Amino acid sequence: MDTIQINTVDFLMHLEIPIIASLKFIGVSVPRFCYHEKLSIASSCRICLILLASGPLKLIAACSSNILPTSIISTNMPIVRKGRENIVELLLINHPLDCPICDQGGDCDLQEQAKLFGVSHTKHYFVSKKVVSDKECGPLIKTIMTRCIHCTRCVRFASEIAGLDYLGALNRGGMMEIGIYLYNLFTSEVSGNVIALCPVG
Q1: What pLDDT is attached to residue 73?
Q2: Last residue of a domain, one of 88, 108, 135
Q3: Stretch (H or E) spanning 158
Q4: CATH no. for residue 10?
Q5: Among candidate residues 38, 69, 88, the one where a domain is terminated
Q6: CA distances (Å), origin 42, targets 5, 118, 135, 149
Q7: Contacts made by residues 122-130, CB under 8 angstroms, sequence distance 24+
Q8: Which residues of the chain have pLDDT under 70?
Q9: Residue range 96-125, pLDDT digits in tens
Q10: Do 97 and 185 fall into the same domain?
Q11: What was the pLDDT predicted at 94?
Q12: Residue 7 and residue 71: Cα distance in Å, rounded?
């Protein structure tokens, strides 16, 4: 155990545990899309940015970084807020703004973060929205792939808990899509859980 500083307050923490878990333990709220306690760490959304002041100042993802000796962490500095706001704006490039008719409306993590940062649209007008066709995943799951933010929670759940390796990410970067390999269907008895896992429904 070692003393670390979080938002100017000293805490005694176990080392080598994820910062995001430590922050949750002491009651400091950090937004997350891809992180889930029961799944492996993907660190793909980057919304859980924090400022690490041990050594050179830098923004890091709280989910993929561990507590180190004499860490100085800030979660509420203006630079942290601006970094998270920029990430929400980037996610809204392709995400449809159909919250009033969305089944997840009112219980959507992305909607909550957009309201928190006062972001109702993206500034990146020069980028055309990418349209992704809906996938046939199985009898329990209905997909609306234009809402997908590529958090990969469903992929990791299918692989690590359901034991199915044919749900995955296709392509890379801006062309990435979540889909089923080889026209298989997600027929596991626990497949319905991906509906609750998805941060955008």
Answers
A1: 87
A2: 88
A3: helix 153-160
A4: 3.10.20.740
A5: 88
A6: 26, 27, 22, 13
A7: 122/89, 122/90, 122/92, 122/93, 123/89, 124/89, 124/90, 124/93, 127/93, 129/93, 129/94, 129/96, 130/94, 130/174, 130/175
A8: 55, 119-129, 182-184
A9: 777 777 777 777 888 888 888 776 666 666
A10: yes
A11: 77
A12: 11
pLDDT of residue 131: 72
**Do residues 33 and 199 lie in contact, with contact meaning Cβ atoms separated by under 8 Å?**
yes
Secondary structure of residue 7 in the 3-state scheme: coil
Q: Which residue has the tokens 């801006």?
A: 174
Six-digit token string for 63: 């989910």
For residues 110 and 69, state if they share a domain. Answer: no
Structure tokens at 199: 């941060």
Q: Pick left, alpha or beta for residue 171 (phi over 0 → left; psi -120 to 50 → alpha; otherwise beta).
A: left
With helix as H, strand as E and coil as C, how does 108-129 read?
Answer: CHHHHHHHHCCCCCCCCCCCCC
Q: Find residue 110's DSSP bridge partners.
A: none
Question: What is the reported pLDDT for 198?
Answer: 82
Q: Which residue has the tokens 């933010």?
A: 149
With beta carbons less than 8 A apart as the criterion, state whether 153 and 195 touch.
Answer: no
List CB contacts of 106: < 8 A, sequence separation 6 or more. Answer: none
- Residue carrying structure tokens 């080598």: 16
Tell me the residue range of the domain where 119 lies.
92-197
Spatial distance between the Cα atoms of 131 and 143, rounded to a whole number of angstroms = 13
